[in-house]
């Protein structure tokens, strides 16, 4: 495995960043922008991962996921609500019958510093409570030490604990992996171990999703499908706050992986503040004016 991962082509950092910046300058016209906004809304994993989370807050978040704009029922639902394992049952009840998924962070999120048995118990608790998706974090220390087999074995064990009912998103915490080469290696490692999604970040560190690291992961899933026939999703998370940001990422998806990934089954945004901006921009397109600050909820 080490030989394969270190045999992957090295990343041209300058070229990668230049391409990401170039794609970010693409102009999106009004009709396409309306489509892109609705698509982005449908891709949001509406998230609350705070120590002060309460059942009431999770219920309110679930209601917002189902009806992001209560004044306009044509607004798409979000893809999912993402919560800690102990809030899964509350979230599941809040979105019942809507098609909105319930995702749960597990495996000692966000640091991932726990014994494997503890991590698997965390996953099983979330799945038993009804989680449709599990967002796990890799052991970055093991990865950076070159212990790829340990990381691989943990991912496969978590995948098994998910059973057949929950999809697995594997979080790399790209801001802690130091190099683009490491991000490429982690992407292939996660996919070979059975990840249904590869995800940039927890949103809990200084550097989270960037156009460049997301572009690199999109290249990885594209190449992985070309070689294996298996499609894997991508989820950038953390730091994506505006409609302009979201559209830049959608352009990256379309131009790198292709239209097959322009669907919330294969691409997600890990964000919460992003949804409010998408809703305000959506209303601006519909009415020609921006709403006041009380148009959207403060989550």
UniProtKB/TrEMBL annotation:
The record ties this protein, via CDD domains, to: DeoC
Please name the top-level EC class of this enzyme. lyase
What is the official name of this protein in its record? Deoxyribose-phosphate aldolase
One GO process term, biological-process aspect: deoxyribonucleotide catabolic process
Q: Which GO terms describe its cellular component?
A: cytoplasm
Note the Pfam families from the entry: DeoC
Family as reported in the entry's similarity comment: Belongs to the DeoC/FbaB aldolase family. DeoC type 2 subfamily.
* Organism, scientific name: Streptomyces griseoluteus
Listed A to Z, the keywords are:
Lyase, Schiff base
Tell me the pathway.
Carbohydrate degradation; 2-deoxy-D-ribose 1-phosphate degradation; D-glyceraldehyde 3-phosphate and acetaldehyde from 2-deoxy-alpha-D-ribose 1-phosphate: step 2/2
What reaction does this enzyme carry out catalytically? Answer: 2-deoxy-D-ribose 5-phosphate = D-glyceraldehyde 3-phosphate + acetaldehyde
Q: Which GO terms describe its molecular function?
A: deoxyribose-phosphate aldolase activity
**InterPro entries per UniProt:** Aldolase_TIM, DeoC, DeoC/FbaB/LacD_aldolase
What Enzyme Commission number does this protein have? 4.1.2.4
């Amino acid at each position: 495995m080490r030989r394969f991962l270190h045999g992957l082509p090295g990343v041209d950092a300058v070229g990668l960043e230049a391409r990401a910046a170039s794609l970010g300058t693409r102009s999106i016209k009004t009709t396409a922008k309306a489509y892109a906004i609705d698509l982005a809304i449908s891709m949001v994993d509406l998230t609350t991962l705070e120590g002060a989370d309460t059942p009431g807050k999770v219920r309110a978040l679930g209601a917002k996921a189902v009806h992001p704009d209560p004044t306009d029922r044509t607004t798409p639902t979000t893809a999912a609500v993402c919560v800690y394992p102990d809030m899964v049952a509350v979230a599941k009840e809040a979105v019942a019958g809507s098609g909105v998924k319930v995702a749960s962070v597990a495996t000692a999120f966000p640091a991932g510093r726990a014994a494997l048995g503890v991590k698997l118990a965390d996953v099983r608790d979330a799945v038993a409570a009804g989680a449709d998706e599990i967002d796990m974090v890799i052991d970055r220390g093991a990865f950076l030490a070159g212990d790829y087999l340990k990381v691989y074995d943990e991912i496969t064990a978590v995948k098994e604990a998910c059973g057949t009912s929950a999809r697995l998103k594997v979080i790399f915490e790209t801001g802690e992996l130091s190099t683009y080469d490491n991000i490429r290696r982690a992407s292939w490692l996660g996919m070979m171990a059975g990840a249904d999604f590869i995800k940039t970040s927890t949103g809990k560190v200084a550097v989270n999703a960037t156009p460049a690291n997301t572009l690199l992961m999109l290249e990885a899933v594209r190449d992985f499908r070309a070689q294996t026939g298996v499609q894997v999703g991508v989820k950038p998370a953390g730091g994506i706050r505006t409609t302009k940001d979201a559209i830049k990422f959608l352009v990256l998806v379309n131009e790198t992986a292709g239209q097959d990934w322009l669907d919330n089954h294969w691409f997600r945004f890990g964000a919460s503040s992003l949804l409010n901006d998408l809703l305000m921009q959506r209303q601006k397109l519909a009415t020609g004016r921006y709403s006041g600050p009380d148009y959207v909820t403060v989550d």
